Amino acid sequence: MWFFIIGFMILSCAVGLFYLITRFRRFYMIKALTGKRSWLFAALPVVFLIGVAIFAPIAMVVVILHLILVWALCDLVGYVVQKLRKQSFKRYYQGAFAILLTAVYLAMGWYNAHHIVQTNYTFQTEKLLGRDSLRIVLIADSHLGEVLTSEKFVEELKNIQAAQPDLVVICGDYVDDDTTKADILLATKALGELESTYGTYYVFGNHDKGYMRSRDFTADELRSTLTENGITILQDDALLIDDSFYLIGRQDRSEHSRASIAELTADLDPSKYTVVLNHQPNDYDNEAASGVDLVLSGHTHGGHIFPVGEIGLLIGANDKIYGAEQREKTNFVVTSGISGWGVPFKTFAISEYVVIDIVQE
Fold first, then answer.
1. Which residues neighbour 175 within 8 Å (Cβ) at sequence distance 6 or greater?
2. Which of 116, 169, 271, 303: CA 20 to 30 A from 66?
C-alpha cells in the first residue's frame, strides 16, 4: 500500500508543480516583471523545492503536496470572498496565507513526529488475573534509524520504566531498512534492561524483515540480539503467563503461513484473560469471535499523514486507524506508534507509547 501511496504522491507533485509556478507568479514583486523574466523568477522557489527533494525525497514530496493542496484551498476561499465583496484584493493575500498555513501545519506535524507522549487506557474484566490489576506497556513502530534514533529510543525507555509495567510488549516494526546493527545493539540492550513483572515480548511487523536488503545485519542476527537480551519472540505462539493469563503473539499478516486466531485459541482455557499481539489491526471480526479479551496493534501510525489512514480503511487494509474500541466482548487498541516510517511529520497523529491497565472487577 505504501508504494502505491508514494507513487501517487510523486505523480501528484509533478502535476502540481506547474500550478505552484503560476501561483508564485501572482505575487506583486514577480508580477511586476514582464515576459520570460516573470516565469523564471516564479519558477525559482519550485526549483529550490525540487533541489531539496533530491536529498530528502519523501519528506519534500509531503511538503510540496501540502503546499499545493493548501494553496488551492486558499485560492478557492479567496475567490469566494472576492465574489461576496464584489471587489478584488489589491494584493495576492491568498498566496501568503497558503505559505504560512503550510509552514505552521507541517511544523505541528514535525513536533508530533518527534515528541513522544504516554497514552493511558483502562479496561475491566470479570476473569481472574491472579492479581488485582495488570499493567501492560505497548510499544510499536519505532522504525529505528528513520525518524527515531536509537539514542532517543533509549532515553524514552526511562519514562517507560517509570510507568512500572507488569508486562512490556513490542508490537512490530521495531527496525527498518535504514536501521543499522549499531542501532539494534544499543536499543535492544536497553530494552532488555527494562524491569517488569513478566518480561518483554515481541512480534514481527511487515518492516522488521526488510524490503531493500540493504541492512548491515541479517534477520537471524536481529533474532539472536533480541533473545540474548531476554526478549521473547512470539510467532503464532500462545503462552500461559504465571498460570494467570494468556499472551498470544501472531505472525504478521504478510506471512502466508500464519495461523488463524481460531487455531491459536482452540485449546485455551476461556476462563483466563487473553491478550493478543497482532501488528496490523486487521482480522477484528475473527478475533472478536474467538473470545479473546484484548488485541493490541500498531502499523497505521495513527494515520500519519492525512488521508493515508482513511485510504487504509477504505481498501480494507486495516480495521481501525487509532484508539480503542470494543467488538462483542473483545477490546481493541491501536497505537499510533512511538515513531513512524519515512516521513518526519505526523499531521494527523501523535507519537506515543501506551500504558494499559487491566483491572479486576
1. 142, 143, 144, 145, 183, 184, 207, 208, 215, 222
2. 116
